[in-house]
Design a protein that fits this description.
Length: 264
């Protein structure tokens, strides 16, 4: 199950806002056994959004998740960009209007449906609005060839609620049964370069999808190097996953000891 993420917003490229949405989404997908192949970030620019969507669809992921740009302001252009990429028109959708009305009612907001607010109910023709009860703008779903596209809000709480209810079940269904087990070593006295050859041999011995093995340097403490080694074993069978984890862990522990390091 291959997923790509497209985040839209000038604030993400100017240092104003940390892209926590991409971080959270990638973690959710990985926890279910899916693979995020790429995260793309573009400005609030119609052409850039459209071009990014076209490039992503050319790679034919199973799911494309976009975040941001669904609001009522002039620079909320995600849906227009998606529509442009697909050669579709933007239309006022009555279902989306009703969802907008409901979202205000749920929050006891007596708002008039002005032209600016109705902008949030204008979606690509042929797409399906998704109710947003934590905010205003509906999310949107549409299919483009073999790719399911979900346009989600930029507000994290709203985005997470829609993703968990509507996208995550599709990821889990596409992946099927999935088990992951993890172990981490905080190592003193061993640098990345010292242990790199042994880890490379381990990685070369297993299919890429079965393990994730990564070193994270932690600098030096009184001239002694500190390194975190992260090992994740993945698969469909719990016993096999555990057996693989234990075997690799033992190899890593032996290598740390051989290099004169210690786990702390």
């Amino acid at each position: 199950m291959i997923i790509e993420i497209l985040c839209v917003g000038n604030e993400l490229l100017s240092g104003i806002t940390l892209n926590s949405n991409a971080h959270w989404l990638a973690g959710q997908v990985a926890s279910a056994g899916g693979i995020v192949k790429r995260v793309t970030v573009v400005r609030d620019d119609l052409g850039e959004i459209s071009d990014a969507v076209k490039e992503i669809l050319a790679r034919n992921p199973d799911i494309l998740v976009t975040t941001g740009g669904l609001g009522a302001t002039y620079d909320d252009l995600t849906l227009e960009g998606v529509a442009m990429a697909l050669g579709k028109k933007i239309v006022l959708d009555e279902r989306a209007v009703q969802m907008l009305t409901k979202s205000y009612a749920v929050r006891k907001l007596d708002y008039e449906l002005t032209e600016a607010r109705l902008k949030m109910a204008k979606i690509p023709e042929g797409s399906t609005p998704i109710q947003n009860l934590l905010g205003s703008a509906p999310a949107v779903f549409l299919q483009a060839g073999g790719t399911k596209i979900f346009c989600l809000q930029g507000v994290p709480t709203e985005m997470k609620a829609i993703f968990e209810k509507h996208v995550m079940p599709l990821v889990k269904k596409g992946v099927g049964r999935f088990v992951a087990q993890e172990v981490n070593y905080n190592v003193m006295g061993v640098t990345e370069a010292m242990i790199a050859p042994a880890l490379a041999r381990i990685v070369e011995s297993y299919p890429r999808e079965d393990i994730y093995l990564k070193t994270h340097p932690r600098g030096y403490r009184k001239k002694t190097p500190q390194t975190r080694i992260q090992l994740i074993s993945r698969g469909k069978d719990k016993k096999e996953v555990k057996k693989r984890l234990d075997a690799i862990a033992k190899t890593i522990e032996n290598e740390i000891a051989r290099l004169g390091g210690r786990v702390c």
